[in-house]
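Look at one record.

>
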Amino acid sequence: FGAAASRPRGTYGISSFVRRTGIPFFNTQMGKGTVPGGSNLYMGTAALSERDYVHDAVDKADLIISIGHDTVEKPPFIMGPKGPKVIHVGYTP
């Protein structure tokens, strides 16, 4: 989840989506707090940094659903033809 996903009008729906689907998730630094509480599906915060748990999960994923990533943010991982497919879901108030 990115910065736009953490807006108050979107957090309830996104939290419900996570609970219903059981899909593990991570956020960008600006997307922290999108899903409140200590969900056991939360993998951490992604950033362009050294290899870590989140990056290992991205490498093993078939699909990444990116909700609310804003271009003002650093990308949470490098996207390319050899990586997982990425679906971007934007937000417009």
Observations:
- The chain has two helices and four strands.
- The first helix runs from residue 8 to 21.
- Residues 3-89 form one domain.
- The two ends are 16 Å apart (CA to CA).
